[in-house]
């Protein structure tokens, strides 16, 4: 599990391509290295990856076909930078919201409104069906960052970013047309799905009752 509070950024040093598979090596910040072992979970742009090799500050991770398909990690090139978060411990402060590191879809940056002290960025999810889980003032994970949803339309949503977020994460350098990873808040998803299921069952029961009444 993760908290959505990015602990640093890491440069992609090298990428080894194979058929529907790749291994990339990143240079982790020194403060994120203590206790790092093979098999540990580290979020890259919000996507949970497993450590496969450690050579000083050079750490390797494998990316399978599904990860490359669902996330923006398949677009990375050597020299690119990713947001990094080590897996949460039970004693950690939950400054954002609990996140699993499982990306649901990506979203395109479709509008950026910059002002002196903050930035408003609009995102259009690739999978429009995910918009029902993105609610005004709700939580969303964007490239591993826990953020509060601002305005919402039928096809897109925005967040408001303070200078600290822009400075500590990769969002400060993002441009129009670039893709970000999206993780939906699981609690919001559970509530929306439950309400939809209850309403569908109620509507079905009403249809059955009306049919029986007509027959009778």
UniProtKB/TrEMBL annotation:
Catalysis: reaction(s): 2 6,7-dimethyl-8-(1-D-ribityl)lumazine + H(+) = 5-amino-6-(D-ribitylamino)uracil + riboflavin
InterPro entries in the record: ATP_synth_asu-like_sf, Lumazine-bd, Lumazine-bd_dom, Riboflavin_synthase-like_b-brl
Limits of the Lumazine-binding domain: 1-97, 98-195
Pfam family, one: Lum_binding
Gene3D superfamilies documented for this protein: 2.40.30.20
Pathway participation: Cofactor biosynthesis; riboflavin biosynthesis; riboflavin from 2-hydroxy-3-oxobutyl phosphate and 5-amino-6-(D-ribitylamino)uracil: step 2/2
Any one Gene Ontology molecular-function term assigned to this protein's record: riboflavin synthase activity
Name of protein: Riboflavin synthase
Enzyme class label: transferase
Keywords: Repeat, Riboflavin biosynthesis, Transferase
Role, per record: Catalyzes the dismutation of two molecules of 6,7-dimethyl-8-ribityllumazine, resulting in the formation of riboflavin and 5-amino-6-(D-ribitylamino)uracil.
EC nos: 2.5.1.9
GO biological process: riboflavin biosynthetic process
């Amino acid at each position: 599990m993760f908290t959505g509070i990015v602990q640093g950024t890491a440069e992609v040093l090298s990428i080894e391509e194979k058929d529907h598979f790749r291994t990339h090596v990143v240079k982790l910040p020194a403060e994120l290295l203590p206790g790092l072992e093979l098999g540990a979970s580290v979020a890259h742009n919000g996507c949970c990856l497993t450590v496969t090799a450690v050579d000083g500050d050079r750490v390797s991770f494998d990316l399978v076909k599904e990860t490359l398909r669902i996330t923006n990690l398949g677009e990375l090139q050597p020299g690119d930078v990713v947001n990094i978060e080590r897996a949460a411990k039970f004693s950690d402060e939950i400054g954002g919201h609990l996140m699993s590191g499982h990306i649901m879809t990506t979203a395109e940056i479709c509008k950026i409104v910059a002002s002196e002290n903050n930035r408003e960025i609009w995102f259009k999810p690739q999978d429009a069906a995910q918009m029902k889980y993105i609610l005004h003032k709700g939580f969303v994970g964007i490239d591993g960052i826990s953020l509060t949803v601002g305005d919402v339309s039928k096809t897109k949503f925005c967040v408001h970013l303070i200078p600290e977020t822009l400075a500590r994460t990769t969002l400060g350098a993002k441009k129009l047309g670039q893709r970000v990873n999206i993780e939906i808040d699981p609690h919001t998803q559970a509530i929306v799905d439950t309400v939809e299921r209850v309403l569908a069952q109620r509507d079905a029961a009403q249809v059955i009752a009306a049919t029986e009444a007509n027959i009778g």
